[in-house]
Each structure stands twice: as C-alpha cells, then as structure tokens.
C-alpha cells in the first residue's frame, strides 16, 4: 500500500543514475500530469513543449529546472543532477503527494483485497495508448468471470499498451530515415538533408500508430569514414538499440543494411525510398511520398509490438502486474 498522503493520480520515477553527481538529472512524472504539476506550482507546459520552470515546495522552497511534456500522461523534470539537488526534487514530489513508481505496484493479493475496479482505474490512469482503454475494460470483466490467464508472451505484448515501447531506426545515411520519421509523425520533427551525417545525434518523437503510442528514435546513419563526433553519436545510438523493443533495419535500393549491434527486441527489415526502386528480395517496402505506404508501415510496427493475436486472445491478461 502507498504511504499515507500519497495520491494515486500521479507517480514519479528517477531515470538518471543516483549513485554519483551528473550534469542533468531526469525524473519522469506519470499519470495526471496536470494535477501533479499544479501541486508543484509549475506553470503550464503544453504537450510536446519544453520550458524552464520553477518548482515550489510546501516550505516555500523553490527549485528551477527544465520541464518537458511528452504527453498528457507523462512529463520529465530535468534539474541539475547534483545528489543533494536530486534528493531535494524527490522531497518536493513526495510533499506534493506524488508517490514513487513501485510504491503503488499492484499484486494479485492487492487486487483481491481492493477489487478489480480500483486496479482498472489505476491502469487507465497510467495507460499510454488509446487502444488500451477497451482492452483493459474487457480484461477486468474477464477477471470478474474467472477466466483463465493467457500466455505470458501475449501478456508481455499487451503490457506495451500501458508503458509505451521504444522503436529505433537503424540504417546507412541517405535512406530516408528522417523523412520517414516526419511522415509517421505527420509533421516536421527531424532534420532532412542530402548530406551524409546530418543526424549527428538520435532524434526522438512520440507517435500514435493506430492507437498504439510508441517512442520512436531516429539514429544517425552508419557509414565508414565517419568523423569522431559522428562515430561517437553512433556509439550512443547503439545503446538505444540495445534497449529498443523493436528495431527498424533499413536500406534502400542502392545501399546495404549496416551491421546490427546486439539488440534485445524484435527486428523488422524495411526497404525505404521505394519510389526510387525496390529490390527483388525486398520485404516491407515504404516511401514517405505515399501516405498509404506510411500507414502500412505504422500498422506493421504495431503488429510487431502488439500483435492482433494478443489483442484477440480469449484468456485473461493480468494487467495489474504491469503497473510497477
């Protein structure tokens, strides 16, 4: 059970290392972000926006930090990562009634004691994807009917409706990775140019792919002879790939797929810039010039992460186990 005084509308989790000081800390707030920021005295930050804000404590203390709003249900606080400063931010969060992710974790015994409706409310407040709403309501109904649990593989896939999965694009320069990201996002979110090495660092966006919210990262193009800065950026991007739930392994008709570093997630081979030619052995082909082609890629990504088979299972998804 959470400590007395904590609300269930928002949670925090520290995502930067806490064993040593750093330049910038990272603390995520999940849930009813508007209510949480209001209790912290933070001026409004629109979804997709970033701003320098003052965080106010109950003892009239004030701390200044960058606040980034990823979605209606998620925001990041980025103070200086000094150990005392990070502890101070956590203190302000807890004084504002925001509990730590994990303190409100749900177990089978807690569901039995507090009821499935309470677990459903907690899941709906934290679910990242619109697609989650009907699925969660249906599985709460199945719990009431005593339906037998589904396969763990399907449960793991459905959990991505609550915690948005990470998708990373990996390929050589000039195969349209940045243009493809812009097309999937339906807006300009990434630099597009013909000069190799334009994307020197990974560029991210939050995308709604037919109801599934994903974190999409566009990594630098991999090429021989890259300068030191570009090579360092690629090494950083390799760390992103190691965490990704899905990697889009790209090439076009005139290039080869670069070597793939170790990954833990699924890999989807994609042939981009299909309007300029498609190889005979191409699998999934896409061109950002054709909206239907882009939508087909979005559906393929969703299917790879949350397959229709998982959405249509007859068994019970014990969704409360995904809440911390």
Descriptive account of the structure:
The chain is globular. A hairpin with a 2-residue loop joins β4 and β5 (74-78). The strands form two sheets. The chain has a six-stranded mixed β-sheet, with helices on one face. A six-stranded mixed β-sheet has the order 8-9-7-10-11-12, sandwiched between helices. The chain is built from ten helices and twelve strands. The two termini are 13 Å apart. Mean pLDDT is 83; it is low at 190-202. It folds into two domains: 10-100, Gyrase A, domain 2 (2-Layer Sandwich), CATH 3.30.1360.120; 106-324, 3-Layer(aba) Sandwich (Rossmann fold), CATH 3.40.50.300. The protein has helices at residues 33-39, 83-95, 108-114, 116-126, 132-145, 152-158, 177-185, 228-243, 291-305, 308-311; strands spanning 10-14, 27-31, 50-56, 62-71, 74-78, 99-100, 166-170, 203-209, 212-218, 246-251, 266-271, 284-285. It has 324 residues and is α/β, with parallel strands linked by helices.
Can you give me a brief rundown of this structure?
The chain is α/β, with parallel strands linked by helices and about 325 residues long.
List the helices and strands and how they pair.
Elements: E1 10-14, E2 27-31, H1 33-39, E3 50-56, E4 62-71, E5 74-78, H2 83-95, E6 99-100, H3 108-114, H4 116-126, H5 132-145, H6 152-158, E7 166-170, H7 177-185, E8 203-209, E9 212-218, H8 228-243, E10 246-251, E11 266-271, E12 284-285, H9 291-305, H10 308-311
Parallel strand pairs: 1-6, 7-9, 7-10, 10-11, 11-12
Antiparallel strand pairs: 1-2, 2-5, 3-4, 4-5, 8-9
């Amino acid at each position: 059970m959470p400590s007395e005084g904590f609300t269930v509308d928002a949670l925090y989790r520290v995502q930067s290392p806490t064993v040593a000081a750093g330049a910038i800390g990272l603390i995520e707030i999940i849930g009813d972000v508007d209510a949480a920021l209001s209790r912290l005295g933070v001026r409004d930050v629109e979804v997709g926006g970033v701003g320098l804000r003052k965080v106010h404590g109950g003892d009239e203390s004030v701390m200044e930090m960058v606040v980034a709003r990823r979605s209606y249900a998620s925001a990041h606080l980025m103070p200086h990562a000094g150990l005392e400063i990070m502890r101070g931010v956590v203190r302000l969060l807890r004084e504002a009634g925001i509990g730590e992710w994990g303190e409100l974790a749900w177990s089978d015994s807690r569901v039995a004691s507090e009821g499935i409706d309470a677990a459903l409310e907690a899941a709906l407040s934290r679910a990242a994807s619109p697609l989650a709403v009907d699925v969660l309501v249906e599985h709460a109904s199945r719990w009431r009917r005593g339906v037998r649990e589904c396969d763990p593989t399907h449960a793991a896939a459905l959990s991505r409706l609550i915690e948005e999965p990470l998708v990373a694009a990996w390929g050589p320069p000039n195969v349209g990775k940045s243009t493809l990201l812009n097309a999937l996002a339906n807006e300009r979110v990434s630099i597009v140019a013909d000069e190799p090495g334009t994307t020197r660092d990974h560029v991210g966006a939050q995308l709604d792919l037919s109801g599934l919210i994903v974190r999409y990262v566009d990594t630098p193009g991999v090429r021989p002879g890259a300068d030191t800065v570009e090579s360092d950026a690629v090494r950083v991007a390799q760390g992103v790939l190691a965490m990704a739930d899905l990697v889009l392994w790209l090439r076009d008709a005139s290039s080869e797929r670069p070597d793939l570093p170790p990954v833990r997630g699924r890999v989807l081979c994609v042939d981009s810039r299909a309007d300029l030619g498609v190889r005979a052995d191409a699998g999934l082909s896409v061109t950002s010039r054709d909206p239907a082609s882009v939508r087909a890629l979005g559906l393929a990504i969703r299917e790879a992460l949350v397959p229709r088979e998982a959405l249509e299972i007859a068994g019970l998804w014990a969704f409360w186990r995904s809440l911390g």
